[in-house]
Design goal:
Number of domains: 2
Strand content: 25-35%
CATH class of the largest domain: Alpha Beta
Oligomer: single chain
Order of helices and strands: EEEHEHEEEEHEEE
Length: about 180
């Protein structure tokens, strides 16, 4: 039995969280040659940041299973200025079409240090301010963070997953990966 190993990838914008595509979309295979590894969870094509891949099914389940409540931290650039009321709604949990969310941790942050430029860049509107929020959730519904910010009147412009459990993108440039034994 091989020792469980993780690959931490800082997934670029526009890349699918899988190894194959039915169209010309970029995939994980454009960044990693890892035939026996599988993503532990997903990250939308239009989101960036940390994705974990593993060669161990039990570890994959532990990371991806919402019942395990492994927290995930996101840096979210939103359109508008976050009010204390909006942040409070995120912290208390809110009703989405698929039910109530668990309470999240949410706070306004400065633009994250070391954040790479996105290609293509986020559209800038001179008349509408944008801000960064750090949101930590312990579940992973489809496009959940984007739906949460929209529900409180703060549409997401850019979403970067910074952390899953204790793993982060620290030290990983956009498109880079590293391997870790578990």
């Amino acid at each position: 039995m091989t020792q469980p190993e993780l690959i931490l990838l800082n997934k670029p914008f526009g890349v699918l969280s899988q190894f194959t595509s039915k169209d010309d979309s970029k995939t994980l295979a454009d960044y990693i040659d890892a035939p026996d590894y599988y993503p532990a969870g997903r990250l939308d094509k239009d989101s960036e940041g940390l994705i974990l891949l593993t060669n161990d099914g039990q570890l994959q389940h532990r990371i991806a299973n919402p019942a395990k409540k492994m927290s995930k931290c996101y840096w979210v650039q939103v359109e508008g200025k976050p009010s204390e009321s909006a942040l409070g709604q995120l912290r208390e949990g809110l009703m989405l079409k698929d039910g109530m969310t668990r309470p999240a941790k949410a706070k306004v942050i400065d633009t994250p240090a070391g954040l790479w430029d996105r290609t293509p860049p986020v559209r800038v509107r001179k008349t509408v301010p944008d801000h960064w929020i750090e949101i930590t959730i312990s579940e992973g519904r489809n496009r959940q963070v984007r739906r949460m910010t929209a529900a409180v009147g703060l549409p997401t412009l850019r979403l970067v997953r910074y952390r899953i459990g204790s793993w982060t993108i620290d030290g990983l440039a956009n498109g880079e990966f590293r391997r870790e034994l578990v």
